Predict the 3D structure of the following.
Amino acid sequence: MTNSIADIEEADVILVTGSNTTENHPVISAFVKRAVTRRGGKLIVVDPRRIKLTEFAEQWLRPNLGTDVAWINGMMHVIIKEDLHAKTFIEERTEKFDELKAMVEKYTPAHVESITGIPARQLMEAARLYAKAPAASILYCMGITQHTTGTDNVKSLANLAMLCGNLGIRGGGVNPLRGQNNVQGACDLGGLPNVLTGYQTVDNLDAIKKLERVWNVTGLPTKPGLKVTEMLPKAHSGELKALYITGENPLVSDPDLNHAEKCLENLEFFVVQDIFLTETAQMADVVLPAKCFAEKDGTFSNTERRVQRVRKAVDPPGSAKDDWKIMCEIATRMGYAMSYKESEIIFDELAGLTPSYAGISYPRIEHEGLHWPCPTPEHPGTPILHGAQFTRGRGLFHAIDWIAPAEVADDDYPMYLTTGRVLYHYHTGTMTMKTDGLNERAPESFVEITRGDAQGIGIDDGDRVTVTSRRGEIQARIRISRKAVDGTVFIPFHFAQAAANRLTNAALDPIAGIPEFKVCAVKLSKGA
Amino acid sequence: MEQTDLMVINGNELPFEPGETILDVARRGHIDIPTLCHLKGTTPTGACRICVVEVKGARTLLPACSTPAAPNMVVRTESPEVVTSRKEILRLMLSSGNHNCAVRGRDDSDWTAFQLGVEKDDGSDALCPVWGDCRLQDLAYRYQVTGEGFQGTPARYPMETANPFIVRDFSRCILCGRCIQACNEVQVNNAISFGYRGAATKIIAAGDRSLKDSDCVFCGECVQVCPVGALVEKDARYQVRPWETQKVRTTCSYCGVGCQLYLHTRDNRVVKVTGVEDEAPNYGSLCVKGRFGFTFIGSEERLTDPLIKENGAFRKASWDEAIGLVAEKLKTIRDEHGGDSIGVLTSARITNEENYIAHKFTRAVLKTNNIDHCARL
């Protein structure tokens, strides 16, 4: 997030898109709801499903799946046409506005309506509402990113925010809501194939040199590595021979599971380190038992870039170990000695190599976490990014044209499928499904559908159906719901038993390598 | 220079900002005014009147939580009149409902009959499930009040245990309305409200249905703010006593909000979770997963030993053997096919320190940049 969580409540207008906030980030949703009910803020929801937040919205736009660039360009078209854009901000802080302007010229409300299904008048009203707000915040989540145009979608939202001068101010910003407790930290500390810790690119020779000196090694690789979504195909082709997975369950969370399974089977050596014998761990050659968060000391970085302490409350079961300790022991056995007395010493080492964490230490975050960038021990942290200028200097507008999703509905697969989480479960359910009460509230997978679509294929609420895509099929129960939109079904991906990801499309965004979980074509048939 | 408004509380001259209440000013000045219904950040209701104070010139005692501070106001927070009023309110609260914390009465025969009645309602012979963690009990001790002298009123509504997470014990409810404020103004789930009238007043969900059939999403904010034993976590009720547990502050391990929470532990098990109040980013709020989804920590299904697959089946192995095998295999593959033939998936679930170590291990030892995690999935 460019801004802090508390900042959401300061916004005059909040635009939420591709985030079912009340179910996936319930505590953040309270900030959104309070902004509306207690502070007079206005909410715009752009989402194909009638999610709970629509009840609080001044405007609810319902786009067809995979048409985000189109409605965002449409809003920008209206804003420029009606002269509502932030001219001083654009002039002083951005570049390539003219290219953007030329691109959105053709995205008239009528044209956008033909692509997205959003009525022209509604788009115009939402655009005015967003543009006229003194401070407007954009919140988004995987509904924006999990598309073959995920990068385009995010850049488009950034365009919109810059167009209205909504960056670097309280109550503004472009705010991705991160879905996993430490996905921010994993990215920050070098858990990515193209960057080292602190987002220093792998070909940044100064950074490489520094790491080599501190680590006392030579020959660190400078060629970008493989993304997770590229590793599996390489396993299939035999180029990738060994895989070491920590705390992940791709055999439920990956797209096109049937194919993913074949890829993993092809590995020469497969290690999984986890807290449970997950679907993925069952395929491993060696399984290493790790501690869970309640048994560890360390830090997590949350969605607002706040580095916070994790503290040990209980002993681990059996001989389970810290994930870092296991890796250190393997490294040592491979001939490179790695050993640390405790997590704080590792933190101090990483702070020395990660510019944005350089000023953070355990004593400083004992009571309250700090937002990175925090470059020095005196620095108070940075709750709001891009204050005086952008990281690259001037904010760059990207002129982006809309392109259709990789798979569209046709005669064979006439319905769209979109996936996500429900309130009571978390990701692949390995943790939440151990709590009886959560299982009681959300016992099994379901296919959320409109009454009209259900009647169209002669099925009723609670009936079992088979859902088929070009990649696989699953069985689940029908749930007729007001949340659904005609022509589209929603299936949660938590449940290995009826894994939605047997159906999803592994087509990737060309830049981010993120799969198009949010759009694929399916057909439904009665019975199982 | 701008003139600062001043008021006097218990002889101390204190500055205040327009819009502040007597309670706000007192708390900032470290003067303790007891409250029950007041919930920080929500609209004051003045419902319980335990915070009444004496204001010079006012005809009656005034609730500190909802009376605005005014220039030159003179307030006494523990005057004899105030104390008498608080005692009366506490006595009435203690006499209506199953407040069996042994402050109910000192008369043995009265206590026995009362306790037997409570046991019937409760299905337990233990004392109140929040004994030692109850604001009403604290105040009863502070003001040395018992429920004596008032006829105890029997519980009007049966206990609700029909949902998996929260027990609603109406016999211990003092109708302060904090749960309603928490639900409607903090979490904005709008699931509960006051229902019925007068002596029949009850906190109801969706036309007096059970929570599981209402808009309740089991965030448990109401349980956290309940000052008495009316709302208690089902699994912890009678099982977890505050004096038997330790509390460790940590960060939630579900989504990316990073809620600050306390893990309450007993005998090396997490038995209850509460939000850390007044601290960013969640200011005490949690969701159903964070508050109730902790069973996995002590699950019997947790992995306890390294496993090595032989002939398609796992067998337990020592760490020495497992680490040796992994090191040898990775070394062989790296040396024969190059580091790029190995991939590492680190995790958005483990700590920063561990991600850093994974990144170091992959690049320095395996000599590849093939490292990623589930950010995209």
The domain at 6-177 of chain A is CATH 3.40.228.10 (Dimethylsulfoxide Reductase; domain 2). Chain A touches chain B through 152 residues (CB under 8 Å). The CA atoms of residues 117 and 410 of chain A lie 18 Å apart. Chain A has a mean pLDDT of 97.
